[in-house]
Sequence to fold (278 residues):
Amino acid sequence: MEIPDNLKFAILGGGNIGQAIAKGLVASGRFSPEQIIITRRKVHLLEEFAQQGYITQVDNRDAVRRADIIIIAVLPQQLNNLLHEIKSELIPEKHIVISVVSGVNTSEIIRHIGKNIPVVRIMPTMAIAIQESMTCIASKQATKEAIKLTKSIFDLLGETLVINEEQMIPATALCGCGIAFFLRAIRAASQGGIEIGFHPYEALPMAAQTAKGAAALLLSMKNHPEMEIDKVTTPEGCTISGLNEMEHQGFSSAMIKGIITSAEKAAKLYNSRSEEEK
Fold:
């Protein structure tokens, strides 16, 4: 779907993920900093963005009035108050609301807004800042056009996948949280490299580039990981010895259990906070 040239964004919540989205939009070359409003209560923390030409401010309602795409990037416990603040400014014929908030479905957001406005959920990764995100997109409420426009925008920032909204909690664990899991694995590999004789400044880029190559290999060849693993595991070799030791220590099991635990936690983030507010 063609993206309008004069599209303006309001990113409500200029924390880590909000900043990453803003950087990615500009890095795509399709949008300028002047098309992006970022809000934050502690607006002085956005000084770097202001210097680069982004519009930074505290006023969420004003940001909504001036924008077409409203990206909500606050914590789950902050969502209800934000929606109450901006709902009078939202216009169904003008705005698309894109929520990055974990654990909150589109029908719940529409219920708080009180208007039949297009609401789309996304779950990107922090790599969206460098256009390498895996962004999942879902909505039970939005029009096909709103979903297509959302996908076209985030296609510029990495890979996208439109999924059922029921799958957004698992997507949060596998992608949103998952980037931290893979980063921790790279850190562990670099620490192993230090143990066997490399300096830290050598071991980390070696581990990171190896991980990047492994991921690129799977995406390019479209093979199952075990098929590529078999190519480097010779009989009585050092690779199979290392793999077997990792499995004995619970490597795969720990990763699987971590993803499941994150999914269970993500499902409770919004609901548990709502109960506390009651």
Notes: The longest strand covers residues 133-138.
